[in-house]
Design brief:
GO terms for molecular function: ubiquitin protein ligase binding. This protein is mainly alpha-helical and 596 residues long. It has helices at 7-31, 33-45, 54-86, 93-113, 127-155, 158-179, 184-196, 201-214, 217-227, 234-255, 257-260, 264-285, 290-305, 308-312, 318-331, 340-356, 360-376, 383-397, 399-429, 460-476, 508-515, 525-532, 536-549, 559-562, and strands at residues 490-494, 503-507, 522-524, 552-554, 576-579.
């Protein structure tokens, strides 16, 4: 007959009778030990399938007499208790545990039936447990959580739902550990993940976009933790993260686009701010998982190489150029605003952006050109820093990529320094007189990005010095040819015609023009150009710089006109040029960079 009892009473009745019967079965099995060891094996050897060890036979009797009559009701009552517990009610889980143990123990019959002529029980089969409890339990679980998911999402946010899912998963693990068989854990969790996560992925993906916009790191971490449980479910999440980072990068650069072209520091540091922000997000929210790190890299590469700034100039390599300019601001003497201790971190950040730029050869072209100006103009803030960043580039791109940069540094720091010292010793030993005190930079042609010099007439004041050095160099290096790069040279002139003496630091071209006034005090523009033989366009640029600095004056151009929109193209060849006798202290060197 069916048990007409309350839930606890049904389970108490079943478990009490089971425990009593189990004890009796073990005692009976002990009494019949002789049969188990002798007669039963003998019968089994005769292939009698209806003969069992005594204990197994008692289990078969329980199954036939008691279990088959009451298992549906007992299982149902167990499931009702589990449902109550899921609804936050207190239950007596010990009753469920004892029922489960009985179901597992009954599997001994299944185990014995498949053994081949042996009475030794290796391990209990789980057929009874799975067929009469686990299948129904999993069906009940799916039904319960499917209803809960629908109801909960109708009244709560997806973020709160995710917290609920995380809680439910932990509860199910504890449930198995407390009173179910351990073999149920994997299939149970898979079922819960399917109902609560897989079937709600669309809502979860939508919530991910909201959390990214609001920078909810901890909520994103939970979302990632749960989505990771579903095979391939993170693929869509990676796409969402990549698209978000890319858009944030595009928006950030658009906000500074009006000034970015002329402000490489602002441009690169804006990129770095985006990368730093989302590198932290990927680390904290997604545990630096490789797929999300790759999504970050793809997003950064896209917005760095193609954004409103690169589009404005129709040049996809503009980021390479601006990065090279940013390096120049850090490495150039007088430009630094960064503490020495922070420089290596800045260099590491430079390499972050460098790794994303697509055309690294364009970066090298601009970097090499600015590096050459720093070296020749003696504008390097620190040779150690120059070596450090070259070593980082070498580590990333290999020896061939940086070989010219390393040669350039060696030409200045070692070769040229040694040659200058040797030349001074040479001059002392040879009693060289009437030469200008100077230092020399000897540069290997193939390593430096310098164009061939424009022709001009070297003034007598400098000619002997250059001829003397060339003679010395040819003695040291027979077969080599020196090409003088006057357009990259500079020197000092002292004024002897002013009441107060001044030292003028000027380019070689500026020096050549100013030295003309040692011959006479007034020249026409045409005469000066003819005397120096400097290319006309270049000559007019240099002359304009000298006029602007007020070292020289032009009778046809007054001071007011100099400050207006005039330029070198307004200078006529018949204009008269004189040296300025009453100029004030020349505080800034004439900027010859524009003529290079």
């Amino acid at each position: 007959q069916e048990l007409d009892l309350q839930v606890d009473s049904v389970l108490c009745f079943y478990t009490t009778n089971w425990k009593n019967y189990l004890v009796s079965s073990k005692v009976t099995n002990g009494f019949c030990d002789y049969l188990n060891r002798n007669w039963i094996p003998q019968q089994r050897s005769l292939e009698r399938k209806d003969v069992y060890e005594i204990f197994i036979m008692t289990m078969e009797i329980w199954k036939l007499v008691f279990f088959q009559k009451f298992n549906k009701q007992v299982t149902f009552e167990c499931l009702q208790l589990i449902k109550s517990e899921r609804q936050n009610e207190l239950i007596n889980s010990r009753l469920i545990s004892e029922v489960i143990q009985s179901y597992v123990q009954l599997g001994l019959i299944e185990s014995a039936s498949i053994e081949d002529n042996s009475h030794q029980i290796i391990s209990p089969a789980l057929t009874i447990y799975k067929d009469y409890f686990e299948i129904l339990f999993l069906q009940d679980t799916e039904q319960f959580y499917r209803l809960e998911a629908t109801t909960f999402l109708a009244h709560n946010s997806v973020t709160e739902y995710l917290k609920k899912v995380d809680q439910r998963l932990a509860e199910e693990v504890y449930r198995v550990q407390s009173y179910l068989h351990s073999s149920t854990l994997g299939i149970l969790i898979k079922k819960v993940e399917e109902v609560l996560i897989h079937d709600q992925l669309q809502a979860i993906y939508t919530e991910a976009q909201v959390l990214l916009r609001n920078e909810k790191i901890s909520d994103l971490a939970l979302l990632f933790k749960l989505v990771s449980r579903v095979p391939n479910a993170t693929d869509k999440l990676k796409e969402i993260v990549e698209a978000h980072i890319h858009q944030m990068g595009i928006d950030a650069i658009e906000r500074i686009s009006s000034t970015a072209l002329n402000n490489p520091k602002l441009y690169i540091e804006t990129i770095l701010d985006i990368h730093t922000k989302f590198f932290k997000l990927v680390n904290e929210a997604f545990n630096s998982e490789q797929g999300f790190t790759a999504a970050l890299d793809r997003a950064c590469a896209k917005f760095i190489n193609n954004n409103v700034v690169t589009t404005a100039v129709n040049n996809t390599t503009k980021s390479s150029e601006l990065l090279a300019q940013y390096c120049n601001t850090l490495l150039r003497k007088g430009n630094r605003t960064v503490e020495e201790t922070d420089l290596e971190e800045k260099f590491n950040q430079i390499m972050v952006v460098f790794n994303y730029i697509e055309n690294k050869d364009v970066f090298l072209k601009f970097y090499r050109k600015m590096f050459a100006k720093r070296l020749v103009g003696q504008l390097c803030a620190s040779f150690d820093d120059e070596e450090l960043i070259i070593s980082k580039l070498k580590h990333t791109c290999g020896f061939d990529y940086t070989s010219e940069l390393q040669q350039m540094l060696q030409d200045i720091c070692i070769t040229s320094k040694n040659l200058t010292d040797q030349y001074r010793i040479y001059c002392e030993h040879n009693n060289s007189h009437n030469i200008v005190d100077f230092s020399v930079m000897v540069l290997k042609t193939n390593s430096w990005p310098f164009s061939a010099p424009s022709n001009f007439v070297l003034p007598i004041e400098l000619k002997k010095t250059f001829e003397n050095f060339i003679m010395f160099y040819n003695q040291q290096h027979n077969g080599r040819k020196l090409v003088l790069l006057h357009q990259y040279s500079e020197g000092d002139l002292q004024t002897l015609y002013t009441e107060q003496k001044y030292i003028l630091h000027v380019s070689t071209y500026e020096m050549v023009i100013l030295l003309l006034f040692n011959k006479r005090s007034s020249w026409t523009v045409e005469q000066m150009q003819d005397e120096t033989q400097i290319n006309v366009n270049l000559f007019l640029q240099i002359l304009w710089n000298l006029l602007k600095s007020k070292l020289i004056i032009c009778s046809e151009i007054n001071n007011d006109e100099l400050e207006k929109d005039l330029n070198e193209n307004d200078i006529k060849m018949n204009y008269n040029i004189q040296i300025a006798n009453n100029f004030k202290s020349f505080k800034e060197r004439c900027d010859s960079d524009n003529t290079i």
